[in-house]
Structure to design on (784 residues):
């Protein structure tokens, strides 16, 4: 009895010691991921880069081979949301943040507001802004003189549809939203199992893109105050339009990215998808049986004389406020996102649609394998990308997004156009209340 | 962790015996050489602390400190000034009880509490009733394949809640569910379990499916410890098997049933994994469907740790009050017999 007790107590003590050791080792590591150990100006600088883009390390290798003095180490992250949570925790803790951070466009105001990313406007060459579409550049400057990141890839939206099914039912590709509604109605009448699309209450980023196309910008900076324009005529117009289609039952009301939706893409009950330039990757993964049957067209338009589109997804690269080598970091991110060789590698290795306009013309020639039947895929993409409308994200876009999930879930379940408009009003209320509560100054 | 105390017990009992000042105990020679030679007092006081130290350190580091920090956070908040864009535009300040006030005044929080109450009324009786029934059936003398039955009923408990929610999610979605495929062939029109009226049953079903096994094993184990003489006596008196179950088995295993009830109640208040996993599949589950989902949303989607901490403290206190309140209420009935 005494012996076993002794052993147990000893084991417990040992475990405690191990835990303590684990804690200190952990904090040591966290410190090491910063650049504290190589602050000596003479030696080579090591920069840490948090990213989740596939195969991005092959692009970084190109830089490392040519720049022995500025070595970049890739640290793979799970994705946009967890990486931001981790970064904000490190910023709060005062250490542990990387030098360079991949950031989705909608997260930039939140990162700036938490003082997580540095203003690198003075560290970039003057012609950097000229590489990008105005709407994209606006997302990294927040409309100010500061530059908080360099755009990497963008997600201009297009309309993806099953060309074979369109042919079978004698449908024309819609060029306006009126025609889209018409086609949706006609298709569903001919085969009640089929839908031209679904309104997904799960994908706030998708709805942002649709309203962006209609000319909405959910936030604005008005002197020293934020303005929230979610409940604007443009957003109401989009909500009412989709609410009407869902109310009539000609558009599905189930969320995207569910097993059921995948099945629908695969078996042809989802005939169209309003998506972004990365859609071929999703379709080839979720609906592998439909290779060669899809085609892409520009988004249906509100005004055919002023073609426009929105963006869904895409990210930029930022220098964090904890980096001790912002100059070197800025040089690297400028190279990665604007140098022709790097942009080509972003396309070939990571499968991104680069935000850099001059580089992407050369880098994108052959259509993606899943769309090998559509030779002009990237021509249409480039044409639509230039019509991406400017859009401003706000510091609590996360709150607006989760309000979208809840309010539009209710509205799509209720299947009524009035509920869609009410959802927009509720989102505005929740978002403004949160800003005011946090102490932001908000313009009425 | 209780080992050090048991180890020390004989010593303490001896000390207690000494206290009545009965002379012959005092005259007993000290047990070991070491103790007589000195440091006896110090040794006696230090040893228990040394043995307790690991438990105390672990408790303080991983339980008390985080709880204390959460309580501290729940009285704080972050205030932004102006556009909130420049460095230093965010400041953590004291917020009094404002986080608590807004938590209890929040309609979404109250709705989630109501939902969880309904969910508990659905899950706990069905789950414990089935667990008791299965335990009694397994315990019945004529039951065949007892081992297989026990493992088969227990197995769902071994499936993590996230996995089982995904599996059931597939079965609930009419587009991919084999059940709905059959219903369609039979010409039945069965509404989707994800519609707003039925989603409660969809979630409850997963919890019941996963929870029966564990509770059955607890009740079954306590059934097996009943001495068989009791049954023999009952049979001699002409009791039926149902009579034995009702009048002997259930009263004897009542403490186990009460324990499983308390566990189930706590699990109900903390329901999170099932609705969170099902949420993306359905329009009927909001991000604040249960109180813990609201805590998660506040902390990780909205980045408001302070409100999340206040809501967590409220949930913790409610759990504590409900569990101990219930135990107090039933203690005299369930455990009183032993003392009587």
């Amino acid at each position: 009895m005494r012996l076993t007790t002794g052993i147990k107590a000893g084991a417990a003590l040992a475990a405690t010691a191990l835990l303590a050791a684990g804690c200190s080792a952990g904090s040591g590591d966290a410190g090491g991921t910063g650049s504290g150990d190589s602050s000596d100006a003479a030696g080579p600088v090591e920069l840490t880069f948090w990213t989740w883009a596939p195969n991005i390390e092959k692009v970084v290798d190109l830089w490392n081979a040519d720049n022995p003095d500025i070595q970049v180490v890739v640290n793979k992250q799970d994705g946009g949301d967890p990486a931001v949570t981790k970064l904000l925790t490190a910023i709060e803790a005062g250490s542990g943040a990387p030098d360079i951070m991949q950031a989705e466009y909608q997260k930039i105001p939140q990162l700036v507001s938490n003082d997580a990313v540095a203003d690198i406007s003075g560290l970039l060459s003057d012609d950097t802004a000229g590489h990008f579409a105005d709407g994209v550049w606006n997302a990294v400057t927040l409309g100010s003189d500061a530059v908080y990141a360099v755009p990497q890839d963008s997600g201009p939206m297009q309309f993806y549809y099953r060309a074979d099914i369109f042919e079978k039912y004698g449908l024309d590709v819609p060029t306006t939203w009126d025609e889209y509604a018409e086609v949706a109605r006609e298709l569903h009448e001919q085969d009640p199992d089929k839908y031209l699309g679904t309104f997904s209450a799960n994908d706030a980023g998708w709805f942002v893109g649709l309203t962006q196309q209609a000319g909405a910008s959910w936030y604005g900076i008005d002197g020293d105050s934020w303005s929230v324009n979610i409940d604007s005529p443009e957003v109401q117009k989009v909500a009412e339009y989709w609410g009407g289609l869902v109310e009539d039952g000609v558009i599905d009301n189930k969320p995207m990215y569910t097993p059921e939706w995948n099945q629908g893409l695969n078996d042809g009950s989802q005939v169209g998808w309003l998506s972004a330039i990365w859609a071929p990757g999703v379709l080839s993964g979720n609906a592998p049986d439909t290779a060669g049957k899809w085609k892409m067209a520009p988004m249906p338009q509100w005004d055919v004389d002023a073609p426009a589109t929105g963006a869904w997804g895409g990210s930029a690269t930022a220098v964090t406020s904890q980096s001790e080598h912002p100059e070197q970091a800025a040089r690297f991110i400028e190279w990665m996102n604007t140098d022709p060789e790097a942009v080509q590698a972003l396309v070939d290795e990571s499968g991104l649609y680069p935000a850099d306009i001059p580089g992407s013309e050369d880098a994108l020639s052959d259509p993606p394998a899943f769309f090998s039947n559509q030779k002009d895929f990237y021509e249409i993409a480039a044409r639509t990308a230039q019509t991406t409308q400017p859009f401003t994200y706000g510091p609590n876009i996360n709150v607006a997004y989760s309000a979208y999930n809840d309010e539009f879930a209710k509205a799509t379940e209720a299947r009524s156009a009035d509920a869609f408009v009410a959802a927009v009003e509720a989102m505005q209320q929740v978002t403004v209340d949160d800003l005011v509560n946090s102490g932001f100054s908000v313009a009425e | 962790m209780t080992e050090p105390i048991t180890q020390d017990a004989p010593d303490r009992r001896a000390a207690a015996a000494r206290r009545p000042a009965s002379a012959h105990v005092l005259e007993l020679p000290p047990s070991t050489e070491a103790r007589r030679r000195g440091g006896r007092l110090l040794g006696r006081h230090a040893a228990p602390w040394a043995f307790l130290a690991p438990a105390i350190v672990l408790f303080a580091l991983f339980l008390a400190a985080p709880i204390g920090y959460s309580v501290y956070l729940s009285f704080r908040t972050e205030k932004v000034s102006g556009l909130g864009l420049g460095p230093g535009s965010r400041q953590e300040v004291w917020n009094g009880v404002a986080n608590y006030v807004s938590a209890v005044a929040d309609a979404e929080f109250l709705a989630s509490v109501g939902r969880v109450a309904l969910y508990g009324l659905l899950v706990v009786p069905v789950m414990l009733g089935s667990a008791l029934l299965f335990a009694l059936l397994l315990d019945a003398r004529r039951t065949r394949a007892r081992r297989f039955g026990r493992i088969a009923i227990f197995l769902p408990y071994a499936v993590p809640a996230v996995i089982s929610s995904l599996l059931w999610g597939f079965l609930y979605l009419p587009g991919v569910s084999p059940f709905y495929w059959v219903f369609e062939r039979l010409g039945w029109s069965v509404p989707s379990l994800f519609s707003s009226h039925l989603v409660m049953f969809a979630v409850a079903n997963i919890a019941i499916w996963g929870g029966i096994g564990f509770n059955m094993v607890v009740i079954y184990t306590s059934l097996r410890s009943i001495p068989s003489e009791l049954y023999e006596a009952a049979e001699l008196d002409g009791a039926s098997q149902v009579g034995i179950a009702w009048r002997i088995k259930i009263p004897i295993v009542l403490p186990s049933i009460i324990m499983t009830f308390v566990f189930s109640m706590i699990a109900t208040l903390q329901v999170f994994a099932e609705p969170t996993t099902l949420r993306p599949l359905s329009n009927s589950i909001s991000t604040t469907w249960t109180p813990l989902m609201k805590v998660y949303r506040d902390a990780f989607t909205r980045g408001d740790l302070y409100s999340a901490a206040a809501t967590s403290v409220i949930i913790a206190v409610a759990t504590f009050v409900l569990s101990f309140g219930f135990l107090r209420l039933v203690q005299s009935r369930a455990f009183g017999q032993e003392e009587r």
